[in-house]
Amino acid sequence: MLGSSHFHGLSAFPITPADQDGRVDTDILARLLERLCEAQVGSIGLLGSTGIYAYLSREERRRAIDAAVECVKGRVPLVVGVGALRTDEAQHLARDAEAAGADALLMAPVSYTPLTQDEVYEHFRAVTEASALPLCIYNNPGTTHFSFSLDLLARLSTLPRIKAVKMPLPSDGDLTSELATLRQRTSLSIGYSGDWGMADAMLAGADAFYSVLGGTLPGPVLAMVRAAQAGDADNVRKIDASLQPLWDTFKTFGSLRVMYVIVEMTGLGRLSPPRPIRRLEDKARERVVAAVEPLLVTG
User: Fold this and answer.
1) Cβ of 218: how many Cβ atoms within 10 Å?
2) Residue 250, SS3?
3) In Å, what is the CA distance from 43 to each residue of 77, 100, 273?
4) Is 266 helix (H, G, I), strand (E, B) or coil?
């Protein structure tokens, strides 16, 4: 059993192409995943928030996993999101992912009624007992409205199958102190999300970065991560500066909406996000296009 080795370097999170009825387009998904395998990303994060997991049925999520496993063929570790409102649903999804051939799991504590720290602990414990796959905690308070306390992360890290945590960028920007504290209190592989903070997180010594942009345009993201791993801070800052116009669109319009424009620009197809989320049009789309075009030219 591989442990935290799946949770290092660039974890690339592609969208999950689906029609208005939530039917996954496995052909386009396979083309997206092939790009990531060819780029040799550290792992692929299937059915994360960018992968619209919350909008897909169990059956469609399984179809997406089956298609991904068939496409990837073990070339890159496949980390599958299994978040769900109910614990039994998350257990079913974890079993589905393992049966299909996924390498690891990612789970956020999805909720409607606010959850307590103890409830989330029990939720994760139950899911780790349903599958033998290593699991990454998905700490995404902006979406789930649940924040993991340090005590809860430390407690969860004692569960044998929990190997990593995907953290939001710290509100005070002090990545160095947060990393030191997390490493003192847990044995987890520590990664971050929020692409505009990728440079800071990797230079501070994060084990992984979970990237939205990397799921469709892995080139510049991989270059930044590898430069950081090599200690080349100047190159990291140079790449990050070239991406600032795009990071601004992420903050303004939401990265999910922006990624649908980027997928279209790569020629993979004209896709729409799940309703009620709307496509970006007119000036908003023009702003994204202007930010992305230089990246496409440079490869």
Assistant:
1) 23
2) helix
3) 5, 17, 24
4) coil
Pairing of strands 189-193, 208-211: parallel
Alpha-carbon gap, residue 134 to 32, rounded angstroms: 24
Residue 247, domain member (yes or no): no
| Residue 84 counted as domain residue | yes
Report the distance separating Cα 29 and Cα 6, nearest Å.
21
Tokens of 152: 């809860």
**pLDDT tens-digit readout, 122-138:** 999 999 999 999 999 99
CATH of the domain at 129: 3.20.20.70
Task: Take residue 184 and report the two structure tokens written for it.
Answer: 């003192």
Residue 163, classed as helix, strand or coil, is: strand
Domain count, the chain: 1
Asked if residue 241 is part of any domain, the answer here is: no
Q: How high is the pLDDT of residue 2?
A: 43
Q: Does residue 4 register a pLDDT over 80? A: no
pLDDT at 64 over 80: yes
Is 191:166 a contact under the CB 8 Å cutoff? Answer: yes
- pLDDT above 90: residue 74: yes
Would residue 20 count as lying in a domain? Answer: yes
Q: Are 12 and 215 in contact (CB under 8 A)?
A: yes
CB contact set of 254 (below 8 Å; sequence gap of 6+): none
Whether omega before 276 lies within 30 degrees of 0, making that bond cis, reads yes
Rounded CA separation 181/88 (Å)? 33
Radius of gyration of the chain (CA): 18
Q: What is the dihedral of CA 156, 162, 168, 171, to 10 degrees?
A: 30
Range of the domain at 29: 4-230
Name which of 275, 165, 266 is nearest 215 in CA terms.
266
Cβ-contact 127, 87 below 8 angstroms: yes
- 3 state DSSP class of 279: coil
| Active site (catalytic) residues | 138, 166
